[in-house]
Specification:
Radius of gyration: 61 Å
Number of helices: 9
Helix content: 40-55%
């Protein structure tokens, strides 16, 4: 019967539609906000869930994410879904121009990491959660960078990230999300600023090299002067010790000579008659002085009268003076002969 078959087909279609609208399977780490007659009713967790057809239905939310094609161009994709992902999500947006405190326009590319902690607030407290986070991140970045100069921005990424995360987290507390991290991917100054920075960096490196070379030269000069000073000190110390040793040697030699002369005088005194030893020694001194006296311009040497007694005691003055070319006139010596020139 055609009418009955048509009725069965309609009943099957309605049953399939009811089953489709009432049976919902939610994946792991996902939730679904369920509304009953347009009002929030409950949050469907992961697993098998049954909804009352035409009375309960899931609430759709907006999502957006950034993709890149083969050439590296970024493209923003926006869509809607009735599933809320509870995992940590990454929200990236294209680089935007930001003006620093010293009026330099730089392009900054940032990324924000967040996680939905309260699905109900993430659905009802804000109209478009990704767009709200995107806009909040851009405005916060402009405010923070606008208070800093270019050099400070380039070296204070961690400080900028920390301030951005604190500001965004404070502003998004009622949105049911936890901002876990905010990172600056790149900071690109203008081309002319980059060239100026490269020249400045090169000049700074050359200055450091010059300072290092100067310090090395200074250190080398100091070490050389210290070495010369130590060398002079060691030389003076050596000369001092050598002089002391020479003086000690001369003193010991004189002492030894004096001891030897003393022993000789003792032996001479013992071998000669009393009173003759002094005359003998004095005569030796006269004889030792005669060659030096004869080296002068004069050719005649006069001996004092006292020397005659000493020459008589020696007895060998004539033979010692025979070798001198100069004529020596002396008084008569007892026991030798009359006074006259000696050859």
């Amino acid at each position: 019967m055609p009418g009955f078959e048509l009725f069965l087909a309609v009943v099957a279609a309605v049953a399939l539609l009811v089953a489709t609208r009432s049976i919902k399977i939610v994946g792991q780490a996902e939730v679904m906000v369920v509304e009953r007659l347009g009002r929030f009713h409950r949050v469907a967790r992961s697993g098998f869930n049954i909804l009352i057809p035409f009375i309960e239905q899931p609430r759709s939310i907006d999502v957006r994410f950034m993709t890149s094609d083969v050439s590296g161009n970024k493209r923003l994709i926006a869509s809607t879904t009735n599933r809320i992902d509870l995992r940590e999500q990454v929200l990236s947006f294209p680089s935007q121009p930001v003006i620093t405190k010293d009026n330099v326009t730089i392009d900054i590319d940032a990324v924000i990491y967040y996680r939905v902690a309260d699905p109900q607030n993430a659905t009802y407290a804000v109209q478009n959660l990704p767009f709200a986070l995107d806009t909040l991140t851009r405005t916060t970045l402009r405010n923070i960078v606008g208070e800093m100069e270019l050099d400070q921005c380039l070296v204070s990424r961690d400080q900028i990230n920390k301030r951005m995360r604190e500001t965004i987290e404070e502003a998004s507390l009622g949105w049911g999300v936890d901002v876990t991290r905010v990172e600056l991917q790149s900071i690109e100054p203008p081309k002319d600023i980059q060239q100026s920075m490269e020249l400045q960096m090169r000049a700074e490196r050359e200055r450091r090299a010059a300072v290092t070379n100067a310090e090395a030269g200074k250190r080398a000069a100091i070490l050389e002067s210290e070495g010369q000073r130590e060398s002079q000190i060691q030389k003076a110390q050596g000369e001092k010790e050598a002089s002391i040793l020479r003086a000690q040697g001369l003193a010991e030699a004189r002492l030894a000579m004096a001891n030897a002369e003393g022993e000789a005088v003792k032996l001479l005194t013992a071998s000669l008659p009393p009173g003759e030893a002094a005359m003998y020694l004095l005569g030796l001194k006269y004889l030792e002085a005669l060659p030096f006296m004869a080296q002068g311009k004069g050719s005649t040497v006069f001996l004092p009268a006292e020397a005659t007694g000493m020459m008589s005691a020696l007895g060998a003055v004539r033979e010692m003076l025979k070798a001198k070319p100069a004529d020596v006139t002396a008084p008569a010596v007892p026991g030798v002969g009359p006074a006259g020139p000696l050859k």
